[in-house]
Amino acid sequence: MELARVIVRPVDEYNQKLVSHVHPANWVNPQPADCYDLVVIGAGTAGLVVAAGAAGLDLGLKVALIEKHLMGGDCLNVGCIPSKCIIRSARVIGEIWDAKNLGINIPKQQIEIDFPAVMERMRRVRAGISHHDSAERFKNIGVDVFLGNGRFASNNTVEVGGKTLRFKKAVIATGARAVKPSIPGIENVGYLTNETVFSLIQRPDKLAVIGGGPIGCELAQTFQRLGCEVTLFHRGSHLLNKEDADAAEIVQNVLIQEGIRVVLNCQLEEVVAVTEGKRLYFSTNGYRDSVTVDEILVGAGRAPNVEGLNLEGVGVEYDTRRGVKVNDYLQTTNPKIYAAGDICMDWKFTHAADAAARIVIKNTLFSPFGLGRSKLSSLIMPWVTYTSPEIAHVGMYEHEAKKQGIDVATIKIPFSSVDRAIADNEEAGFLKILHKKGSDEILGATIVASHAGEMISEVTTAIVNKIGLSKLSSVIHPYPTQAEAIKKAADAYRRTLLTANTKRILGFLTKLS
Question: List the disulfide bonds (predicted).
Fold first, then answer.
């Protein structure tokens, strides 16, 4: 069967290079092996890690990888990489805006933003790293790569491109996609999602962003800084409502200060085409209003890609909202078939898909030989919202601990007390550590800072390795760094161990000396 051609717009040298790596038009699917130890459907992060990990074990395993669209999945093509590229450009604008506070005066009207160049740089960077996820690279490491629609044909076979692949075990890693909004009229006027917004080459003057979660907030701030007039719509009473409320408030205030119109508690009622563009009618707190924009960007949720796989035919249970049903070992209701990544997990992060893929490798290839099984519930999962400032979190929130009946104590270190943050003019953030009451065991942490994502791993490492606040207090942190806030939090815990009686004894001994 002839391979369906994939086009990524704009069709420039960078996107052509990208496609030549992740869905080459001249690709010829191999002749299937007699039987595969592992067949993986979906070549996003989870699928790539499973396939590469299994093939790289040097055990002579037969591994097949199927992808119907672009290898690399969301992360490379329409997620992590392109978004962080344009966020980096936008961060420069934010730093220029703040430069006056550091003694550098650059009037806003003198800042020249070359939006096409920002997007071209993103495409160049994406194409430059795409070889890591390329069909040719996976072929070279011993994976049989099949481009086309994969579909279960029986309990031990998958069909793709007119060929039948027999397997011992299979993995579903087909990911998720942006949820279609149910707003009357929006389909008629058209809208952008993370899957199409990075194809822009001209800046929309006015942009509506629907969804006040991480994707919506990150892109709203980015496009505002790049020169758009942004209106951000959110159904909740405050942005980032799944995050620590104090952290979310800081980011929300920054977005408002930077000129974004934030509309909370809103119900989007209708979208119509008008001469000036696209008009959204909405109501909030009992009032009806409208706004006219050039483009609408929808960033409100993800839907699992469960269609077309014939999951019913092989006894794999799924839900169209939550995805494929798995147990703690990432095994589906068919014991021969596993799943990993956005298709089955609440954690829709690249690093979560990577971690889940490693669980699948162990549980499909090693556990049958009595080498133990890994559990999804054992993972300690950090995440980051890449606004300015960033919000990073790991472990429990206070309400989660209380729900489990755990008595907790909180240590909060404002960055206004951290010398490096003061020097950097970045005092608005904080570090908050949650620990078990009467113990130094760390249960969770939230950091709000310019580079919170770079700082959270120290706390994650401590939780994973059961390193308490007492030991963290003895770790020497370079001075001055913002990560010194972690040591300050650990020192604050140590001070709570000094009872009134202990303090009196120490004071007496000090006088004697």
Answer: 75-80
Residues that constitute the known binding site:
84, 150, 211-218, 301, 342
Across 92-114, average pLDDT: 94
DSSP string, 32-94: PPS-EEEEEE--SHHHHHHHHHHHTT-S---EEEEESS-TTHHHHHTSHHHHHHHHHHHHHHH
Per-residue b or e along 158-183, where b marks 16 or more CB atoms closer than 10 Å to that residue's CB: bbbbeeebbbbbbbbbbbbbbeebeb
Which residue range forms the structural domain that includes residue 35?
A: 13-71+133-178+303-378
User: Could you give the CA distance from residue 405 to residue 393 in angstroms, rounded to a whole number?
Assistant: 21
Q: How far is CA 31 from CA 35, 51, 79, 136, 163, in A?
A: 11, 18, 33, 16, 8
Residue after which a domain boundary falls, among 378, 397, 428: 378
pLDDT band per the 50, 70, 90 thresholds, residue 5: confident
- Those residues with Cβ within 8 angstroms of residue 509's Cβ, 6 or more apart along the chain or in another chain: none
User: Are 187 and 225 within one domain?
Assistant: yes
Distance CA 417, CA 406 (A): 29
- List the binding residues for NAD(+): 211-218, 301
pLDDT of residue 324: 98
How far, CA to CA in Å, does 157 sit from each of 35, 116, 145, 154?
9, 46, 16, 5
Q: Who's near 95: CB < 8 A, 6+ residues apart?
A: none
pLDDT at 259 over 90: yes
Q: How far apart are CA 144 and CA 356, in angstroms?
A: 22
Coil/strand/helix, residue 453 = helix
Rounded-to-integer distance, Cα 359 and Cα 352, Å: 11
Question: Tokens 């040719």 — which residue?
Answer: 136
Mean pLDDT (whole number) for 416-423: 98
Domain count, the chain: 3
Total residue count of the chain as it appears in this document: 513
Q: Which residues define the annotated binding site for FAD?
A: 84, 150, 342
Q: Please list, in sequence order, all residues whose beta carbon lies within 8 angstroms of the beta carbon of residue 203, skipping any fewer than 6 positions away.
A: 113, 115, 223, 226, 227, 228
CATH number for the domain harbouring residue 63? 3.50.50.60
Per-residue pLDDT reduced to its tens digit, 183-210: 999 999 999 999 999 999 999 999 999 9
Instruction: Give the phi and the psi of residue 51 in degrees, each rounded to 5.
Output: -65, -50
CA distance 347 to 358: 15
pLDDT at 342 over 70: yes
